[in-house]
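Q: Hi! New to this. If I give you a protein sequence and the SMILES for zinc ion, can you show me the bound structure?
A: Yes, paste them in.
Q: Okay, here:
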Amino acid sequence: MERRAGSTKLAPAGFVVERAEIDTDCVFLDVRATAVSATCPCCGTSPLRTQSRYLRQAADLPIAGRRVFLRVTVRRFWCDAVLCRRRIFAERFGADILAPLSRRTGRLETIVHHLGLALGGRPAAAFADRLMMPVSNDTLLRVVRRRTEQSRDERSPSSALTTLHSGAVSDTGRLSAISNAAGR
Ligand SMILES: [Zn+2]
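A: Thanks. Here is the predicted structure of the protein with zinc ion bound:
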């Protein structure tokens, strides 16, 4: 079944849904960025000339018991800045929306991360599967490790020390528990 979806809040911020295809087990949402242009990662200008487009697929939060996949139309732009070394670049969406090369949206990865912290490797993977967010044990561990390292980098040394001295369980301790539960 195919439906014209129009502008909705089905997709993450910054995207508009152009079309929805509802299958027995899955929903495919064709989306594109609402921004007129993108910023060149090299020189910071925002060109308007589109060079080409390509499709990228990423899993998103489930809807009504169905898995959801975004089919994102990504634009490539010419950079016309005279002194810029980049001639062509692809638009990016921000790590919390859809990180470069990621196969999951930021909001789905956040839930996967919290399931991993709360339940541990295999139980979290089994629960995620029941929630129509299938993720392998290895992927789950990778998500928890990456986000733990990111939060550690962002946290100041003084706040990290305060947390340890207060007796709270550190992220490293949680990660060890998850790895042990996964048999690693
Ligand atoms: Zn440039």
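A: The beta strands are 2-3, 15-22, 26-33, 50-63, 66-78, 88-90. Let me know if you'd like me to explain how to read the tokens.
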